[in-house]
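Lab notebook, page 48
Experiment: co-folding of the full assembly
Goal: obtain a model of how the components sit together before planning crosslinking
Operator: M.T.
Materials (sequences as entered):
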Amino acid sequence: MATAWAPPPRGPVAGRGARIGARAIDLLAGAALVTGAWIAVGDAERPLAALAIAWFVLALYDAVTVTWFGTTPGKAAVGLRVVGLDRVGHLPFPQAAKRGAVSAALTILPVIGWVIWLTSTVTDPLGRGVVDRAASTMVVPTHTPLPIAARDLPGYADGARAPRLSPLGRVGDLDVRMRARLRRLVDAPLLAVAIGLLALAASLPIPILALIYGSSAAWVVAFVADETWRIHRTGTTAGHRLAGLVVVDRRTAAPPSVGRSLARAIVLGFTLYVPLLWWLLGISMLMVRFGTTGRALHDVAGGTVVVADPHLDPETQRQRAMRMRLGRAA
Amino acid sequence: MAVPFRDDLPTRRFPWVTATLIVVNVVVFLFVQPSAYQNPPTVDDYSYEEYQREQDGIEFAYRWGAVSCELTSGDALAERPADCDDPPPLGDLPDDKSVYLALLTCMFLHGSALHLASNMLFLWVFGNNVEDRLGPIRYLGLYLVGGLAATLGFALVNQGAAAPLIGASGAIAAPMGAYLVLHPRGRILTAIATAAFQVVYVPAVVVLGLFFVTQFLTPENDVAWEAHVAGMVAGVVGALVLAQLPAVKRRRALDAADVALRSGAEF
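Observation: model returned without errors.
Model output:
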């Protein structure tokens, strides 16, 4: 049930190089301020307090400059500004403070925080990394016309990369499918109880390795049984339905047979829950992200494809997927 | 092992009381408590300064922490109350300690950065929605009463104990208990280590039930599990009572309408 797709007009997006350059300038200025604050109120015996001071100073630097000037000195130097979605003018202080707090938290967290900032900012089609998503903001070239409507953001995102269409419909995106997995237990109370009981087993006097192997094996068995049954019966789990996606057999466009569903569930269960096989999970993720039909290893095993639910109005489906992508599924 | 990250219930207002409690706890830990708590003294290479920092830390815990046998006898440890099991191991006890003030102060102190971080995480995940439903004043009342109940519950079970009790966990168990009553259908994004390693939304009933039950299974360690149990029970009872108030019922109706609107518009 493919729908015609025309690329929406591309919005103004800040260049990645400029973003990184702006960040470097702001970091230098921030480092100078933090050093000053440490000299003024620091205490060599209190390392964590020093870290908190650094966080506070960096967050304040961001929040105050963005509130007053609409941009930080580093971003101003490379011709960028920070804007709120659906709003004209400068950010109000609470929103700027939230942005500054998240940004500073990533800055003071060595390596991990820097990697999170860099990867989330560079890989997002709009350059909206963790920081921008937390504060509902976006970094744009200085003379971009405002407001930027949040309603259009999916269009912006789609515009960066055409949605993939298979003969069976629009292909489910990686981030939507990953977030849908988090909602796996929404309509599966028995699995939720199983998780609780297995977690409780940690309190029993069992050697730690036996506990990990035993509970993991029990979980994978329960998961495979449940997943097989659900995918065969309806082609969906709760997460799929919330995202407007459905798993169908490539040949019949219907939910897969028991056998195919079982094969799919086994491969999925092992790649998801056996840490030794997480490299396979990585391959699956690359396949969903870059493959033309977005089929992961478990889809290949089951002969299935995950596509937009053909029974849904395409706009409703797109909105559900977007809500899932934004972390706002019901 | 289960670590909650967030829940899937939006809040109507910014949870000011929860945020303020977190700021107060963090600031007290970083800037008020002696440096030994965030930067443990090195035991080898025992310099006098390190020894002094360690002693400062211990004395601070005895001055501001709640001590069971002080609460039952009403006398500070320095006055050597009769019904203490084991006298504390040092000579320099504060003799001007206000025994009952410690009931309040102990719930804003933490033993280590990890202790602080895990407590604040639980407070943020569960506190914001409880505050949203109860309103800030009632919520603060629930929190403080929960903290008192937790400390007193601990003191009741360990009457002769002379060790100081510090930590917000007893007080935080109260909003956790209240969450169970007010938002039984909430779902908590939780990292789980022992049902294979995974991160998934788990029903609040399971997460909180797990927390409650594991309190009774913890092996002997430093955790004051009696305080957690007492705080959580206080939270459940408090929420059951507060939920009868007209103001709280109104908020509940608003939340229910929101849910209906969302699902009606979407599904």
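Interpretation: The interface with chain A takes residues 1-2, 8, 26, 30-31, 35, 38-39, 53, 113, 187, 189, 192-203, 206-207, 209-210, 213-214, 217-218, 262-263, 266-267 of chain B (CB under 8 Å).
Next step: discuss with group before ordering constructs.
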